[in-house]
Fold this sequence. Notes:
7-stranded mixed beta sheet; DNA-binding; 18 strands; 10 helices; homodimer; alpha+beta; Auxin response factor (chains A, B); 422 residues
Amino acid sequence: MKLSACLNQQSPEGGEKSCLNSELWHACAGPLVSLPSVGSHVVYFPQGHSEQVAVSTNKEVDAEMPNYQSLPAQLICQLHNVTMHADMETDEVYAQMTLQPLNAQEQKEISFHPADLGAASKQPTIYFCKTLTASDTSTHGGFSVPRRAAEKVFPPLDFSQQPPAQELVARDLHNNEWKFRHIFRGQPKRHLLTTGWSVFVSAKRLVAGDSVLFIWYNTFSRTLCKILESGRLTWFVYALIRNDKNQLLLGIRRANRPQTVMPSSVLSSDSMHHGLFAAAAHAAATYSRYTIFYNPRASPSEFVIPLAKYIKAVHHTRVSVGMRFRMLFETEESSVRRYMGTITGISDSDPARWLNSHWRSVKVGWDESTAGERQPRVSLWEIEPLTTFPMYPSPFPLRLKRPWPSGLPSYSGMKADEMGLN
Amino acid sequence: MKLSACLNQQSPEGGEKSCLNSELWHACAGPLVSLPSVGSHVVYFPQGHSEQVAVSTNKEVDAEMPNYQSLPAQLICQLHNVTMHADMETDEVYAQMTLQPLNAQEQKEISFHPADLGAASKQPTIYFCKTLTASDTSTHGGFSVPRRAAEKVFPPLDFSQQPPAQELVARDLHNNEWKFRHIFRGQPKRHLLTTGWSVFVSAKRLVAGDSVLFIWYNTFSRTLCKILESGRLTWFVYALIRNDKNQLLLGIRRANRPQTVMPSSVLSSDSMHHGLFAAAAHAAATYSRYTIFYNPRASPSEFVIPLAKYIKAVHHTRVSVGMRFRMLFETEESSVRRYMGTITGISDSDPARWLNSHWRSVKVGWDESTAGERQPRVSLWEIEPLTTFPMYPSPFPLRLKRPWPSGLPSYSGMKADEMGLN
DNA sequence: GTGTCGGCCGTCTGCCGACAA
DNA sequence: TTGTCGGCAGACGGCCGACAC
Lengths: 422, 422
């Protein structure tokens, strides 16, 4: 593996190294992934970070790992920088974040803005995602484009030609160009990518079950999307605004194969766990910056959470055993659906190591029988309790000194001591 | 990348996971690489380990990395386990070592055995290594086997056939089978691998400049090698003992391309350095076992050294500025040659972080003009001073309390306090 | 609407000795 | 002794519509 392309979240267009498109990154990362904004305050969970390392190295943290006494279960930090990356060899997306723990004085001076809540990731509107079939990846033929997808995302064909065909140029996460012959033929008629497709499949080492996604993108797309969302759309409305063939992006998402990542031959998994704890502990002790990687498709849960989202979920939401809730999950087609469940317990997930951590403090049972796929423990900020009023007093120890002021959710300008942070 | 095959050094044959051949591993690692024996005492250098991580992540250790006060510049350890591995995707070889720092009492009780000196790696005798040419890796043809190589390593052909040909079966580091058609044809006659060769080249992603090596191996090979080394050999002597076609092994060595390894997307390089220091410091504080990876082709120098070799080089060899020395290097053809140089200085390479470390304490100048390829700093145990008697008193601070007893190199049974270890 | 297949053509793989370094 | 090439034959890549689900 080699150094990846990168993009600072704040400058999606300019800069000589800004070859990584933010919308494409988010499309590859999936609809549930959101990155906190640069400059905002966040909560970092060493426990969740450790979970990602455990999954990536395929090895649980050693039971004999010492407690890092100086490292609290959660660190309140300012997020100084976020860059999006993609592995040069696998196209795996990940983010690099520079965090700086706040000292006591800085924590007192925190003021919140609603934006800090961390809105759901903006998935590009003009895009499609298709899971590759055996025929798509076979050397025998090309790629069968779903009709609606082609009409929505690809530049319109000139139907006066027989057969209608054009050359598509799409750019991947590394800004590499891929050219495809797009043709509309067959009986019944269908959209196909022929010449160029097999080169792409073999270069990216795609297999049946992996997904490919195309985005139509330009700098006005956000504005245009809002306009388009406001009314009914026909394919020629899309076609009218898609006159620049060079604005096509494509990304891949590999199927969840068992053991996607590996234990690096560089450092033992134990040393990696030591590394993240020691780096965080050092940063916490000196209030200095440190760097972490977040791999959205490897990590079971986000472990850098907007502070406001955390405060709201932990200190201003009453939950109790027996309460019903919903939680978002990604579908195979890259959209979201809600699964329902019941809270069966509230307790620290690892009281020996991380006392009073809120990480995965909620034990849950899932309604559907395929529940084995979903985590038996979740964090408060991941779920939507179905009652907005407290049915039972929460048995979970809250450090909240004062109740949440009426008139939710306006807490802009609140001070930290009003929220029980210290 | 995925989990690799592994082999415990002590059980090259048995065990369900012992699919990695020790001789093949050493052949791929190169002639200069030796692994200390299991159970022996070694010196571990965090500084050298950090160097390997810096090379692997392509990023130097951060200047703001804190000093790990409790971590000395060298740790005396017992080596509890060594396993050899190969990366599943790249076939890159590496070793996993389990080290346990010795407490003060254990250090006093150390007794040495001559074997602890760490003999040079035993390269298999019946093997060959060839750097691939453009023709070898082209899809246009097969692999041209050097004549002597084929006669030495491959099973003998039946020359009554026209043309003489056979099927070779060779196993790689992961015990995968590769089949090749071996034929002796052309004008002039030569040995070629045809059918099966291109599959191997594309599966291993070999390019011109990479090397491939074949070993003829069986459990008696060490004994046989000694017999063979004692006299002159002709090809039919080899042929007589190579009657089992399934004993053929093959490995690869990739050319040194710039930026071979990459910054993992799992952990920042800073955290990796923290990790190795914290893991070692924790192990040193508690005298508990810890695990490290040694990648012989990534690391500029070995950082786990047999204790006896270290003692001999540091405490019982007089060196001084101006002294001439030789040092072994690997050639492109996988043999060794000596380069000569002059000692230009003796000092700590990083006095701020690692005071009184002997790691790369010798500044050197190299005789040949291509000297830029070689390290400007080496460690005492890497070089052979050309004078066996001290010409000048060493300016380097020796902690030796008593002089080395006369009658080198017999120090079996010596106690640590006689060698200035404490 | 789209996944897979048989048919068909063209390119490239891959085996051969020639030849030269 | 061995690296590269021209020649050649066959395999496979890859484009097409047919057909079924």
